[in-house]
């Protein structure tokens, strides 16, 4: 594993303590400067705080990434070494204690790789060496067993000799630990070279190797060498030459002495070795073209180098064939210990040891070492299957840029919807679940929920729509299907700013070679510089072009620039968090698999449910008695008017409906699986749901009566919709229980709530309430002008159309239509459909927003309509 160097701006600092101090100072200074800047520009603390924290965390990640990268690499490399892969190294340019530790770690890894390579090479070499005497002995024993040769002393002696040679090779295995240490003792002695060559030829022939061998070595040539090792060399080179020599040709063995040593050559008439392959054939497992393993010549060179000599192919004298020359110098008198050499070319011993596949914990993503956050978030939020997120970062940056440039700061309008849609699209573009039906449905609902910021002026509808859109969208990104999963989806979004920091650093490739960030920054800087310089020149040269520039680039004050920078940073961070959550969804259903132990005794859950059923029955009975008795009975028994009676307790009934859902959820989880338990559960909870629907109907009826008596308000309309949604949820529980579809209930409840809110926004609540109150005015003559004044600009067209002009002027002159002030109306980015319609309506009756009339001008109107 050759990881790129993990560069860091602090690599030149040689002390880890100093680095940590600088890291703290940089983070604190960044946060303080941003706070001071925001305070000087009168930016809201609610915007300054998250941006300052996010940027401080980003600076910390930037500086700390290179500091801890070597440690993470060491963890990954050590795990790879445990699997048998010693190729990994820690790449860092740090000079502190961590860098020194990395250098020591690399040296240790190199030593371990050498030892492991030598161990495997020895095993392969010994295996190869054992095969030759085993083959010879097996052939001899088969001839003896078949009666081909007589079992005389000579044949038995030859078999014994091969067995003794096997024993000698087994002794070599006992020297494995010494070989791994890189030191081998040579047993040098004076030997007759010709006798050793003849004996080696006989061994090769007895092993079944065909061919003829001509030994041209003087009888009196004596050399000083290790006879066992030299026999290894001769047997391997003679066997190699015999395999390559054509039939009916001779292999010539010659030797001689020189002033500084001695030499031996083996020549054959085969196809020879090409000059470019004369080193490759000595590599372990290098192909020799004749069916060999490729170890023979590697072992021969190993023996030659042990003696301090060389073994290499030379040009053949006749221009064809192969000529192998061994040259050994005169040994030193002290009899040195020779270090085991490494081969000139190495081939990994994949046939001996195959590294196991990496475990999931070895790497985080795309070969990235796991970070401390992986352990912090655990199985709730692992990083799996994601690589570089540069596209997500770029999309989030685009959303932040749109917000900084386009978002209206005077009033909520079309640009708010634009920014919300841009941020959602940026997260959805790379979402892992973007093709799932649930995610698509949630995205559509989220889009519908942010439209009121463009279509309506009621702030409470806009706020509810934005909050609900965020919640629904996040659930779609995480695939939440349970109540805990839905709640954890909302929590995971702000946590993404912390969980995604390592991913953010990898996406930008801030550290290390191959970084794209400098190129991107340079491109952006030069592009903005060219736009500014040439745009200014042409704007001053051509008045038409200058007018276009004035329309596109508003004049901004210092406070505006700073505020928009903070706003862009906030939207970027929020979008990036949502994008990371979409790209790598948290396992929000981590609690869904936990099985609640059913209660051993049925009465522990059944009796409380039956008690609740009894209370509901008593309440329904009281409601029925009041309905039968009518107004007279209610006024006589309670002292309240009928309207006050039906209104009293509406909030309590809504709370009781919500608690019913909780009771059903808890009881269904604690009930046992026995058939009797299931029957009691369906009966008791089914009765409770049926009674709850009667309570919902009673509450809605009561609110209707109260609204007919005292008028309509947006709050009463909202609680009507909320109570109706709770009734739908209860009905869904009954249907799901009957059909066994309980796992779909949380999603049905979430989607139906979003649909209910979309429906509420679709009827334009403020305009609807104003219209109903004006209908009530026509039938009863009662109208609460003060309440009409509290409505938003959504109600203005209805007021103008349904009230006399003089009354409408008085209502709209004192109506706090702050969103209709000239600054908001002149800001194209704050355009809103309801405000645009309200502006047209008030102008039709001659009202100028922001200039209320004197109080005495509308005094008669207030007296006439006062209730």
TrEMBL record:
Reaction catalyzed: ATP + protein L-histidine = ADP + protein N-phospho-L-histidine
Give the residue spans that cross the bilayer: 20-41, 47-71, 386-407, 438-460, 466-498, 519-541, 561-583, 603-628, 648-668, 680-704, 724-741, 748-770
Q: Does the keyword Transit peptide apply?
A: no
Main localization is membrane
Superkingdom of the organism of origin: Bacteria
Concerning SUPFAM superfamilies, the annotation shows: ATPase domain of HSP90 chaperone/DNA topoisomerase II/histidine kinase (SSF55874), HAMP domain-like (SSF158472), Homodimeric domain of signal transducing histidine kinase (SSF47384)
Instruction: Report the locations given in the UniProt record.
Output: Cell membrane
Q: Where is this region: Disordered?
A: 328-361
Report the cofactors: Mg(2+); Mn(2+)
Q: Which SMART domains match?
A: HAMP, HATPase_c, HisKA
Please state the Enzyme Commission number of this protein.
2.7.13.3
Listed CDD domains = HAMP, HATPase, HisKA
Domain called Histidine kinase: residue spans: 125-332
Query: Membrane topology type, per the record?
Result: Multi-pass membrane protein
Question: Residue ranges under compositional bias (Low complexity)?
Answer: 339-354
Q: Which UniProt keywords apply?
A: ATP-binding, Cell membrane, Hydrolase, Kinase, Magnesium, Manganese, Membrane, Nucleotide-binding, Phosphoprotein, Protein phosphatase, Stress response, Transferase, Transmembrane, Transmembrane helix, Two-component regulatory system, Virulence
All residue ranges annotated as the HAMP domain in the record: 65-117
Spell out the protein name for this chain: Signal transduction histidine-protein kinase/phosphatase MprB
Mind giving the lineage of the organism this protein is from? Bacteria, Bacillati, Actinomycetota, Actinomycetes, Propionibacteriales
């Amino acid at each position: 594993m050759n990881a790129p160097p993990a560069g860091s701006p602090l690599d030149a600092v040689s002390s880890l303590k100093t680095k940590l101090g600088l890291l703290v100072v940089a983070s604190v200074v960044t946060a303080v400067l941003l706070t001071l800047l925001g305070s000087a520009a009168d930016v809201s603390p609610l915007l300054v705080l998250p941006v300052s924290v996010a940027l401080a965390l980003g600076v910390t990640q930037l500086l700390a990434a290179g500091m801890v990268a070597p440690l993470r690499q060491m963890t990954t490399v050590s795990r790879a070494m445990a699997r048998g892969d010693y190729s990994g190294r820690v790449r860092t340019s740090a000079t502190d204690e961590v860098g020194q530790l990395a250098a020591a770690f690399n040296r240790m890894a190199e030593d371990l790789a050498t030892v492991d390579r030598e161990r495997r090479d020895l095993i392969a070499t010994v295996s190869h060496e054992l095969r030759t005497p085993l083959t010879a002995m097996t052939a001899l024993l088969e001839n003896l067993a078949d009666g081909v040769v007589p079992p005389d002393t000579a044949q038995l002696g030859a078999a014994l000799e091969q067995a003794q040679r096997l024993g000698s090779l087994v002794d070599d295995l006992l020297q494995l630990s010494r070989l791994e240490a890189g030191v081998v003792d040579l047993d040098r002695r004076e030997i007759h070279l010709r006798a050793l060559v003849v004996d080696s030829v006989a061994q090769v022939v007895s092993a079944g190797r065909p061919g003829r061998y001509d030994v041209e070595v003087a009888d009196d040539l004596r050399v000083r060498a290790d006879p066992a090792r030299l026999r290894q060399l001769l047997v391997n080179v003679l066997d190699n030459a015999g395999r390559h020599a054509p039939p009916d040709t001779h292999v010539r063995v010659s030797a001689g002495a020189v002033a500084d040593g001695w030499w031996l050559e083996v020549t054959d008439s085969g196809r020879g070795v090409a000059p470019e392959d004369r080193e490759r054939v000595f590599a372990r497992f290098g192909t020799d073209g004749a069916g060999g393993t490729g170890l023979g010549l590697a072992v021969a060179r190993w023996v030659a180098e042990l003696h301090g000599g060389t073994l290499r192919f030379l040009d053949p004298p006749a221009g064809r064939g192969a000529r192998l020359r061994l040259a050994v110098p005169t040994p030193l008198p002290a009899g040195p210990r020779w270090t085991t050499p490494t081969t000139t070319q190495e081939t990994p011993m994949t046939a001996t040891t195959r590294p196991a596949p990496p475990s999931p914990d070895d790497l985080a993503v795309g070969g990235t070492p796991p970070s401390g956050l992986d352990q912090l978030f655990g199985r709730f939020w692992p990083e799996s299957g994601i690589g570089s997120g540069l596209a997500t970062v770029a999309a989030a940056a685009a959303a932040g840029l749109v917000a900084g440039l386009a978002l209206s700061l005077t009033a909520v309008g079309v640009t708010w919807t634009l920014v919300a849609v841009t941020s959602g699209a940026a997260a959805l573009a790379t979402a892992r679940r973007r093709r799932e039906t649930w995610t698509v449905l949630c995205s559509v609902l989220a889009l519908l929920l942010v439209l009121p910021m463009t279509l309506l002026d009621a702030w409470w509808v806009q706020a509810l729509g934005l909050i609900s859109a965020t919640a629904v969208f996040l659930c779609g990104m995480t695939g939440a299907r349970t109540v805990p999963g839905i709640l954890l989806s909302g929590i995971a979004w702000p946590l993404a700013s912390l969980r995604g920091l390592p991913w953010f650093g990898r996406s930008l490739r801030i550290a290390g070679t191959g970084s794209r960030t400098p190129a991107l920054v340079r491109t952006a800087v030069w592009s903005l510089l060219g736009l500014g310089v040439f745009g200014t020149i042409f704007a001053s040269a051509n008045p038409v072009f200058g007018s276009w520039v004035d329309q596109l680039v508003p004049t901004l004050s210092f406070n505006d620039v700073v505020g928009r920078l903070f706003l862009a940073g906030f939207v970027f961070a929020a979008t990036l968090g949502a994008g990371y959550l979409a790209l790598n969804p948290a396992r929000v259903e981590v609690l869904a698999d936990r099985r609640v132990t059913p209660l051993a005794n049925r009465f522990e859950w059944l009796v409380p449910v039956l008690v609740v059923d009894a209370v509901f029955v008593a309440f329904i009975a009281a409601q029925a008695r009041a309905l039968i008795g009518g107004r007279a009975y209610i006024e006589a028994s309670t002292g309240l008017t009928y309207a006050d009676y039906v209104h009293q307790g509406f909030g309590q009934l809504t709370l009781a409906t919500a608690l019913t859902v909780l009771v059903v959820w808890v009881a269904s989880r604690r009930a046992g699986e026995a058939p009797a338990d299931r029957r009691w559960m369906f009966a008791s909870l089914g009765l409770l749901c049926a009674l709850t629907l009667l309570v919902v109907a009673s509450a809605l009826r009561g609110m209707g009566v109260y609204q007919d008596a005292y008028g309509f308000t947006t709050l009463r309309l909202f609680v009507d919709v909320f109570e109706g949604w709770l009734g739908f949820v209860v009905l869904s529980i009954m249907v799901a229980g009957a059909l066994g579809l309980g796992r779909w209930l949380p999603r049905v409840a979430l989607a139906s709530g979003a649909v209910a809110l979309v429906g509420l926004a679709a009827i334009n609540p403020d305009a609807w309430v104003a219209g109903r109150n004006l209908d009530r005015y026509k039938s009863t003559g009662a109208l609460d002008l003060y309440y009409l004044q509290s409505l938003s600009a959504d109600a203005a067209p209805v007021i103008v159309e349904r009230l006399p002009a003089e009354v409408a002027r008085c209502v709209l002159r004192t109506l706090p239509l702050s969103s209709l002030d000239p600054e908001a109306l002149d800001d194209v980015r704050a355009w809103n459909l309801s405000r645009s319609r309200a502006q047209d309506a008030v102008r039709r009756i001659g009202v100028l927003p922001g200039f209320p009339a004197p109080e005495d001008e509308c005094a008669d109107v207030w007296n006439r309509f006062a209730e």
